[in-house]
Design goal:
Keywords: Membrane, Transmembrane, Transmembrane helix, Transport. It is built from 18 helices and 4 strands. The protein is an all-alpha fold. The protein has 2 domains: 400 residues, Up-down Bundle (Growth Hormone, Chain: A), CATH 1.20.1250.20; 43 residues. The longest helix is centred in the N-terminal third of the chain and has 35 residues.
Amino acid sequence: MSGDTKRVLSSASIKKEYSWKDLYGNEYFYYKDPMKDAVSFVLLQELCERLAFYGLTPNLQTFLKEYLGYTDTSANSYISSFNSILYVTPLLSAVISDTLLGLYYTIVIFSFVYMAGLALLTVSSVKSISQPWMIHLSLLVLIAFGAGGIKSCVNVMGAQQFHPEHHRDLITRFYTYFYAAINLGSIVGGIVTPILLQEAGFTASFAFPLAFFILATVLFIIGNLMDRYVKPKPQGSAVLQILKVVVYSVFKCSLEKNKVSRGGKFEDNFIEDAKAVFTLLPMFVLIIPFCMAYNNMTTAFLTQAKKMDRDTFGWNMPPAMIQNVDPIAVVISSFVVDSFLFPYLRKHDWMPEPLVRFCIGSLFGAVALACALVVEYQIKSQPLFTVSVWYQVPQFWMIALGEIFLMSTSYEVAFTYSPVSLKAVASAFDLCFFAIASALSAVLFSLCQPWLPDFDPANPT
């Protein structure tokens, strides 16, 4: 070990009060207050990255209709397909992070892919040079792979900054803050880019997310240069090993027979770890119905908003702007839930188990769709542009409550209930069910196209 490396480790051991050795003998050092000293960089990165993503998505439907000539339903199906690819990609990044690079460098590399996609999309918005292939390459390849590639890694890296014993009770708080950071970024991006689209056009509305994503990447790298992160070393291709276990288990009709002690090819401990991950899959299935409801926010809910009265104190508010009710509701509700509701429930030993929180979140998703149905009935019953867009607030707020109880809990479950060696894999599997929900949404939009005529606000008749 070089002298410089020793000095870094010595410095780390002084600044970071807690240490931990993994099963391979690697020693890591942790801050006494990781939320402030390390996780703050991860949360800032997530905030800026989500600002970029959610600054992009509110305008996608309108962009696809104008630049590719899509109808509402075909644009909605395209967006759902884009989301589906995005949520499958974490499996690829999990292989790379577990095998070659570790979480930090995987995040950095996929961030540059993401950045290239945002840059190409910005260029494609210049009509004189825009080509369909530029839009498809930027959205379905670069942005989908870039955003998806870092998605399963960032929350796991943030959680790894907490000591496994001393900071165990802080994990739930971290995931609540993590989801709040997502939605703070969403608020800024969701407010600014629709205004930029209305006032300056698509190029400005896409350049804004690009600028903030560059900032996100710079902040994240600065944290590493300041030696703030705990960076566990790669421990092998867990995803590939898991897939091998699945194949062998199918042929043997047994998971237990894959253990070395039973004549199999895999270490007994790894099979036990795999079993722990597999037991989470039935719970992850519960994500699908809520995520299908969630996908309506940038698709069907947007089309609905275009048919409504958007006058706000004399200003014709962009239809995508109402989507910001969701992140605002998440931030407010997260604070109430984390500061008052959950502490009260823990104090009285009434804290609901993750499965119960999943069911509560799904219930909120169902209520959101019921609210949207009532609003749609009102729109159909009255002349166009007469029902106030603010009647959409309840459906967005219900989605937000569902996110707090279901989505943030799914991240927590993937990290907390998975073994150390398979945490990134569990997180990737969690996101795969988001992908399934998006794929089902795309199919549903296509099937419903005959019943959903295209709506053009300029020619509403």
